[in-house]
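Recap from last week: sequence in, structure out.
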Amino acid sequence: MSLHIGIDIGTSGVKAVLIEGVAKVLAEAARPIPVSIPHLGWSEQSADLWLEATFDCLDQLTASVPNLMGAVAGIGLSGQMLAALLLDESLKPLRPAMLWNDQRALIECAELRALCPDIGLRTNGAPDPGITLPKLMWLAKHEPRVMDAARMLLLPKDYVRLALTGEVASEPTDAGGTQLLDCASGKWDASLCALVGWNPDYLPPLLRPWSPAGILRPDLAARWAMGRGVIVAAGAGDNMASTIGVGAARPGDAVLTVGTSGVACIVDAAFHPGPQKAILTSAHAAPDTYLSMGVVMSATATLDWVRHLTGTDTATLVAETEAFAATGRLQDAPVMLPSLTGIRTPLNRPDAMGRIDGLHPGTTRGMLGYAVMEGVAFQFADCVAAQRSVGVLAGRFAMVGGGSRSAIWARLLASALGSPVDLPPGAHVSGPAGAARLAAVATGASLDILSVQNGNAHTILPDAGLADLLAQRYARFVALLPVQG
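Predicted structure tokens:
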């Protein structure tokens, strides 16, 4: 019996799964990670937190199934994308990583567009403060000593792999998010590096997502009761891994990832950039494909904001939201633009803030929870429409991520999109499960497993009555949107 571990380094925490075959989850582990917000619009994490949480998750797996760890043949990694983590000559972090939802590099985005007007057609998308290159420009201005000392740029999952194996590497799915990669060719672009004075030698070598990228260090293998020679795969960015985790590897396959952020992921056979709609497009973690990504900046993160604001826990808030939805009084709920960290697709307004219309004395926590879920569903519909406008067409949708556990959220998405939405088994761990599939290929399995479905999915059909109500409320939602930048 050959087993594989998938690890997802997310914004709010790390998840790890031990998997047999394609999708049989034998054990799970999770560890939360805090985000630091030193100033309004900033978002940072210490890279050491990723390592602590990853090691803790592997400790948890070892404690729960010690007799199975010796059968692990490979480890795969997925992780939050777009971060800027700079390492010194000893490959140690020089400062906390600037994350995908960090908004401080607004001025640098305008400068980057002036320096390279066609950058959105060459790279993963239009300049945005969440993307890595504008962050490097900001650091060059405001923290020049950090830039002078930097000798390597790594992404979160790649830093974790460095700790696991001692090897420096990345791959095109995650590298595409740096805006230093020519996405059509899959190679680092020296001319883009020159825009910020970055030495291309300080970028990691690129492997295929399913390629071996190192061997687990012997001391760590012993710590986790594994044998010697455990292969660690190159892995993939979190959106690509989540898509692979439910077998979405062919053109037209579409996955709605509802996590801290939300992403409408559509597999494409060609590179169809959509910078004018703030769509991100990078290589997919399956051969000869790309992934078009319409981004909702704040999904479950906005639900977490409501939870903190109202002094409750996630389970209670979701239960009260579901209970309110069952009353049939949805028109009593406020309408919300849940953009706590800006809007990416399709308006490219990182400076946008959330708004609520229709608060009244009878507004309950459940109504607020519903308003968040509905607003996120509207944003997903806007993303898919934007992707369609640039020639990226979706077939059937699957829903994954933590939000997939909410029945009303799935109904809202199906009704807002006018399309069935499948809830595949294991949807809440699709990221680490996709990473585990890549590890399986790295240890000898066929590439065909990347497109294998996860068994019988539960399908949510559009609700005609709900769709009619959403159409009315969408007009109020649109009125909350800022003017396109």
